[in-house]
Write a structure and sequence with these properties.
alpha+beta; Immunoglobulin-like; 410 residues; single chain; 20% strand
Amino acid sequence: MLVSLTVGKVDAGVAVLLTEDKRQIEFPSILLPPDISSGSIVDITVARNHKSESDAAAAFHALQTDIFRTFGQRTPSSPTLRCRNATQTSVVLEWDPIDIATAELRSLSLYRNGSKAGTIPKPTEVHSTKLSGLAVDTDYVFHLVLKTSAGTYSSDKLTVRTHKMTDLSGITITPGHMPATIRESLQKTAETIGAKIVDTVRIDTTHFVCTEGRGQAWEKAVENNIPVVVPDWIKGCEREGRIVGVRGYYLNADPRMRQIGPGTSQPQHQQGPPPPPPPQQQQQQQRPRSPLMSPRTEVTPPTPERPTRERNGDAPPPPPKDEDNDDDKKSDISTTPEPKSQAGEQKVRTEDLKPSAVHESEEDSDEEDEDEEAGKAAEAGLPIREKPGQPSIQEKKDEEEEATFQDVKL
């Protein structure tokens, strides 16, 4: 197809071409002959290139096939989790190398009982982990979660139960420097209790046994915080029938700290009866204990208002004299001793007044008690019973009103 166009304007990069019907077409000036200018007429031939179209379609199809074969046929695999070793308070888990196919790795996390326990560092290199601080004889459920750019993949749930104190099959020993005879004895004892012996320090090594602290294996055990004990620790576990503490079996520990003899897990029927207590202790146990008296608070009721007697230096006068007693008293007066001095007379007067004051206080307290009982009976509407041989309340009041001072003759 041949088309004739008129050049209208030529710029640095674009030329404006005009058609016969006066339409403008912007055309790259680099494709025009170099000697054209405004007003020049150019002929342009337009044709379809079928060969180039077929070549481009074939190249695109090959690219799509390569992408499908690389990214569309393989997907990441779910991790496989298993238990490597379990003890009374720890669990060692391991898994196969993760396969993420052509996807991009995001993270690998470990879950315990449905809660996230932690993220595995360097998942492409690390294929095991150890969890410590677990409870004795308890079930735990673990699973892995793999996150990639192609999606999230979880492993099957794994149930692990920690061992009892009497189960020694989880002990894994790495022997260090020791005499040959002790090593042979160590192997026999380990076979007897069901423990495992490995030559190198691994993640599942629970104890490093040696008699001398030297060597690369010893350094690695110390670096990984693995207990370094003497061979007697295995003997102690065999003797006790359960796992024993390592505090007294370190290399530099005092042997007196070790527990020698049957452990606490021994049945009670094998133990003898406890020795009888000494005789003094038996007597102390047989003595009845006196009950402890609890403190008691008593409230004293207020004393009713009553007229008080005046107690000055002079004593109250005696009752009326009888004629029969006048003669006796006169005889007493006639036989009175010699007069005493003023100080002696005052001392005698004071001694004579003391008993009467005590007697009067006792009488006052008895009268107050009787008055309270009478007041309670009157409030309750009950008749007041008077004791025989005692004057009534009204008579007491009359006597108090008629009381006068009495002269005491010394």
